[in-house]
Write a structure and sequence with these properties.
- There is one protein chain.
- The protein has about 700 residues and is an alpha+beta fold.
- About 40% of the residues lie in helices and about 20% in strands.
- The chain is built from 23 helices and 23 strands.
- The strands form four sheets. A seven-stranded antiparallel sheet has the order 13-12-11-10-16-15-14, covered by helices on one side. Strands 17, 18, 19, 20, 21, 22 and 23 form a seven-stranded antiparallel sheet that branches. Strands 4-6-5-9-7-8 form a six-stranded mixed sheet, sandwiched between helices.
- Helix 13 crosses helix 16.
- The termini are far apart.
Length: about 700
């Protein structure tokens, strides 16, 4: 493709318009470059177009004469079309018209005629002022530059050079290799007294998800949180709480914010000032619903997992690997255009892992990738990234090698810790296959011992499964990792459910039920066996089909207002109560009318004269959690266990109808009786399967 590509080629490759921040950065870079050119007599051009703006892989800009085949009339200032001879000053103003029209075209690229340009009023006003037909009313080049500089600083946008490099097509982890080294230095205000001595100065290399290395200058006693904060501030990452710093000791281990780097670094780093210790900025918490992530965060997810797959840290079947390679090509090149770039516009080894490449002949892989890339035509970058993440079989799993205590010679065993629990994998011929699942709701305790033991005790049977780690600190680390993942899963589940229940939109509630039913099928090994790739294979699809049917029918009904009643408004309350030795707290009931799945634990009635009755704030409704333990998807017996182990003071989070409303009124069951039954099941408890909170 050469050293430079035109702006037209970039837009054709990505198949979508430039975003607001991209337009601002590009406008700043071009205005600055054109102002420099205008100072040199005779070098100023009067017409620019998307085909004459050149972008370099190193982040620089250049301009060329407009091609004869290119329609430049739309980008030419009216006075130039009239044949007026410009002065140097006038030439600079005439090119402003071209620049404004060019960037407006970039923001409007491939948008339907009835869809407005997706940019702010401020940016659109600036571009339109550059495109005024009358030169005297047109914004001058210097004003454009000053406006862009002010916006750039106030919005903390990345440098124009960095953005231009990102506009280049191809793998981002290759483009960043040409970027200059970024050096960050720990502020003197957080250095210790000894840290101000050159003898204690040290260097860290932090590898980002896109492969970029950032050099951090710190001291021996620097803590992980200080380095993490510097990286986050530099990256301008909004949802930084999903990430952490990790180091490699055969496997990735996360560094706590309060831990000194010297505690995990090799001895050579502590003793030799010139030694560099490598850390990795990686995902620490994986969300189940990827579409909820901020676009910037989702891109970081994509970058890390794309490299993990390429470097065989994640595994999948050959067909899945090729499909993911086609999605990565769509993300990084846009629509497949072999006529423009040739059939060898990419390197297969940059999209397919070595383990897969060794199984197939190169011509076959090239042909398949080309076909799969072409199948993704018209898919936007955001869509292809999202699809890539959704198709990863081992998404969100942290792997650590162990051996069984009683059968140490049975072969290699790998533990996978994720937001839903612990998965045991058997490794044969380099491939991981699921052998056992320990999901949080089926697990009683997880512990470690000084003898390198990592112990999982099952709920109900109380059976213990013991695994031996390489070091005792690894067993302890796995316990802490499980604790963090379990807490994260509970918080995310409660947050998503609370958000849905406080809404008066029943369609949204049904959609959440559908999503939770999918989760239920993937977290119970007794209900859903798994194949070798770790993907769930449900034995039946009745619940999914039911939830899909519910949502469709509710949405259809919403088009025609019901004759009687409206959905009750709900509120989520958090209440702390002390148990009464005689009366307990409340009476609750779970709903198990849809197959063998529960839709939740419900409060059916209040014990008269008890603490809840005296408090007066609790009404019959859905019990979300008890003492920070989520009750989503748990059975009656599991809920009873949680309550039996609860202390004297209990914190309840309840979703309940506002005021005195307790049920959802329907249209007298006319037209769709079965739908009313389903909605009633979702929103109100039945009078069966009562479970009392145990008394002391």
């Amino acid at each position: 493709m050469g050293t430079f590509v035109t702006l037209t080629e970039v837009l054709e490759a990505r198949g979508s318009p430039l975003e607001e921040d991209e337009v601002w950065c590009l406008l700043l870079a071009t205005a600055d470059a054109l102002l420099d050119i205008s100072k040199k007599p005779g070098n100023m051009c009067t017409v620019l177009s998307p085909g004459s703006v050149l972008l370099s892989a190193n982040g620089s800009l250049a301009f060329k004469s407009c091609a004869q085949s290119e329609d430049v009339a739309s980008y030419t200032a009216p006075e130039v079309q009239q044949g007026l001879t410009p002065s140097t000053r006038a030439a600079a103003e005439k090119v402003v018209y071209s620049l404004g029209m060019t960037l407006y075209w970039c923001a409007d690229y491939h948008l339907p005629q009835n869809q407005p340009v997706q940019i702010s009023t401020e940016l659109e006003g600036l571009l339109l002022s550059m495109c005024e037909d009358m030169a005297v009313r047109r914004t001058d080049l210097l004003t454009v530059l000053e406006t862009c500089e002010f916006h750039h600083k106030s919005s903390m946008l990345p440098s124009p050079e960095r953005l231009i490099r990102q506009l280049e097509i191809g793998p981002e982890f290759l483009r960043v290799l040409e970027e200059p080294l970024v050096i960050l230095e720990l502020p003197g205000s957080i250095l210790t007294k000894k840290g101000k001595s050159p003898a204690t100065h040290r260097e860290l290399s932090v590898v980002m998800p896109n492969g970029q290395s950032i050099l951090v200058k710190c001291e021996v006693k620097t803590r992980g949180g200080d380095v993490f904060d510097m990286i986050v501030a530099h990256s301008n990452l909004v949802e930084h709480f999903y990430f952490g710093l990790a180091y490699i000791d055969n496997e990735f281990f996360f560094v706590d914010n309060d831990t000194k780097i010297s505690k995990v670094a090799p001895d050579s780093w502590k003793k030799v000032p010139t030694t560099t210790f490598v850390l990795f900025f990686r995902i620490k918490f994986f969300v189940n619903n990827i579409s909820l992530l901020h676009k910037q965060t989702r891109h970081q997810y994509y970058l890390q997992l794309r490299r993990d797959l390429l470097e065989d840290r994640l595994s999948c079947h050959e067909a899945t690997a090729l499909y993911l390679g086609g999605l990565a090509l769509q993300t990084e090149y846009g629509d497949c255009m072999p006529k423009v770039y040739g059939r060898n516009y990419y390197r297969p080894d940059q999209y397919i892992s070595k383990s897969v490449m060794e199984k197939r002949a190169l011509p076959y892989i090239q042909a398949e990738l080309l076909r799969l890339h072409a199948n993704n035509a018209q898919m936007l970058t955001d869509e292809s990234e999202l699809e890539f993440l959704k198709q990863l079989p081992e998404y969100g799993v942290f792997f650590h090698r162990v051996i069984r205590e009683k059968r140490p010679l049975d072969g290699e065993i790998v533990l996978g810790v994720c937001a839903k629990g612990v998965i045991v994998y058997e490794v044969k011929d380099g491939c991981r296959s699921t052998a056992q699942n320990f999901f949080w709701r089926e697990t009683s305790t997880i512990s470690s011992s000084q003898k390198r033991k990592f112990i999982i005790e099952c709920r109900g049977s109380r059976k213990k499964y013991i695994f031996i780690t390489e070091k005792s600190r690894i067993a302890k680390y796995l316990c802490n990792l499980c604790s963090a993942q379990h807490k994260f899963n509970n918080e995310m589940s409660s947050r998503q459910l609370s958000h849905s229940l406080v809404s008066d939109n029943i369609v949204q509630y049904a959609a959440v039920c559908r999503a939770q039913s999918s989760q239920l099928k993937s977290i119970s090994c007794s209900e859903t066996p798994q194949d070798d790739s770790g993907l769930t294979t449900p034995q039946e699809e009745s619940l999914t089909k039911l939830c899909d049917d519910v949502t469709a029918r509710i949405e259809a009904r919403m088009e025609t207002p019901p004759k009687l009643g409206t959905p009750s408004e709900r509120e989520v309350v958090c209440i702390s109560l002390k148990k009464d030795p005689k009366l307990g707290l409340i009476v609750i009931v779970g709903e198990d009318a849809i197959g063998r799945y529960d839709l939740g634990i419900f409060i059916a009635s209040i014990v008269p004269g008890g603490p809840a009755d005296k408090d007066g704030r609790i009404r019959p409704g859905r019990l979300i959690s008890l003492n920070h333990v989520s009750l989503e998807g748990v059975t009656f017996s599991e809920a009873a266990e949680v309550m039996e182990g609860s202390p004297e003071e209990v914190e309840l989070i309840v979703s309940q109808p506002k005021g005195s409303q307790t049920t959802l009124m329907t249209d007298g069951r006319s037209g769709d009786d079965s739908l009313d039954e389903i909605v009633s099941v979702m929103m109100t408890p039945k009078a069966s399967n009562r479970l009392h909170v145990p008394r002391d």
